[in-house]
Amino acid sequence: MRRQLIEQKGYQEEELPSEETIRCRLNEMGYSLKRVVKAKPQKKIPETDAIFEQIHSVNQQADADPHYVSQWMPK
After folding, report:
1. 16 and 2 Cβ atoms separated by less than 8 Å
2. Range of the domain at 14
3. Which residues of the chain have pLDDT under 70?
4. Would you say 49 and 28 are in contact if contact means Cβ atoms under 8 Å apart?
5. Do you know which Pfam families this protein is assigned to (predicted)?
6. What's the confidence (pLDDT) of residue 70?
């Protein structure tokens, strides 16, 4: 807070009280650190189901094709 007052408002070092004094005054005035809610994940969109249906379809075709070699299969 002290640094911000110096940088943004142009106060001099000597004009301001110590960090601890500023912190105590802010706490007395009711200002304190608060927990912030984390961002919630986005809801599933309809396109998600369509994408996964396509992936499952392609995977089934690859499983049925004897000429298809997966890069994950051991040689």
Report:
1. yes
2. 1-31
3. 69-75
4. no
5. DDE_Tnp_ISAZ013
6. 66
